[in-house]
Amino acid sequence: ITETSHELTDLALGNYIARVTVIDKAGNQAMASVNFSVVEPPAPPVALDITSASIYPNPSDADTGARFSVSVNNRSTVSVRIYDFAGREVRTMHHAAKADGKSTIEIVFDGRNNDGVKLARGSYFARVIANDGMKTVEKVVKIAIRK
Questions:
Q1: Which residues contact 41 (CB under 8 A, 6 or more apart)?
Q2: What is the DSSP letter of 8?
Q3: I want to staple 128 with a disulfide (CB 3.0 to 4.6 A). Which of 38, 53, 72, 145 is the partner?
Q4: Is the whole-model pTM more than 0.85?
């Protein structure tokens, strides 16, 4: 048995047929065809990024609350975790649906902690987190609450 191979290189985009004919020493022959296409490789995936994250109004009033505006460049889930100045988490909020790529979503913040109590006047920090299932990225936003 003799094996041979031939590599096809530098083919342009398009459809091709490769035909092979084999003849043995006794004169028997067989033919086979293979159809294939050369296509453009898929674009590499874009790395997840939070292109902007802010809260408005800032400073906000604990009675009226505020809104987080978050822009992402890939389809992802978005959450916001708010911490007091001592680093204790006081509130966690999740966006109910996945954010579409290159979109801006808004998450309403009512000025309350996880127990429903109005936050005290002062400075807080929010970690805005986006996760597309393969990568997690985050940005930090400073929040001021006035009474």
A1: none
A2: -
A3: 53
A4: no
Cis bond before residue 59 (omega within 30° of 0): yes
Rounded CA-CA distance 39/110 in Å is 51
Q: What is the pLDDT of residue 65?
A: 85
DSSP class of residue 85? T
DSSP string, 92-123: EEE-SSPBPTTEEEEEEE-SB-TTSPBPPSEE
Q: What pLDDT sits at residue 124?
A: 96
DSSP symbol at 39? -
Cβ partners under 8 Å of residue 24, min gap 6 = none
Is the CB of residue 80 less than 8 Å from the CB of residue 126?
yes
The tens digit of pLDDT for each residue in 69-89 reads 999 888 888 999 999 999 999
